[in-house]
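Hi support team,

I submitted a single chain yesterday and got back a structure, but I'm not sure I'm reading the token output correctly. Could someone confirm the output below corresponds to the sequence I sent? I've pasted both exactly as they appear in my results page.

Thanks,
R.
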Amino acid sequence: MKYEINRRRLLQATSTAMAAGALSSIAGRVAAQTPNQINVVLGGGDWGKANIEAYAKPFEAETGIKVNPITDDMGMGQVELMVKSGNVTVDVGALTQGSGLVAAKKGILEEIDYSLFKKEELDGIYEFAKQPFGVANLIYSYNMVYNTDVFPADKPRPTNWAEFWDAEKFPGVRTLVSGQFGSEGPWEEALLADGVSPDKLYPMDIDRV
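Hi R., thanks for writing in. Yes, this is the structure output for that exact sequence:
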């Protein structure tokens, strides 16, 4: 199966996630939506410009709906304040998975009704990416790299995560994400380093991490 996410469907699906908070009726929703317009947090700098070219402009051309790009960052606290104050100014936004899960638990996101979308388009999205209150928009991996001047080909090099943490055998500075947002820490790498096989990583043993 070829995995492609249709721009229109992706934006339509995720628009419900940030629009209103968990209010029960359509009539009662507090939404940022204006007819034929949608307010989307696209990020700043080159990242935001790329999102406008890759998603906003094609979406406008296909649907006739104007995208109002928001180039500021948005955190969970801002979403919560908008919902509680009844002044929602964003239809679609991006949160880290950790923040998104907390926001959903607080009841400030609108659940996505996946029954509204075509099966063939939903089939084009990985199952793990289709979550109740949002759709994954970035899929990435962590890779171990090292300076080949420090570790030349004729000398030992770190080849696994246990050796990555072996600062005696492989001295030098290590750099890792902190995990402060609850979703991007080196959890799997720590378990692999401790001898857990890849097929036994989940559910993760946080105490062991």
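A quick pointer for reading it: The longest helix spans residues 45-63. Let us know if anything else looks off.

Best,
Support desk
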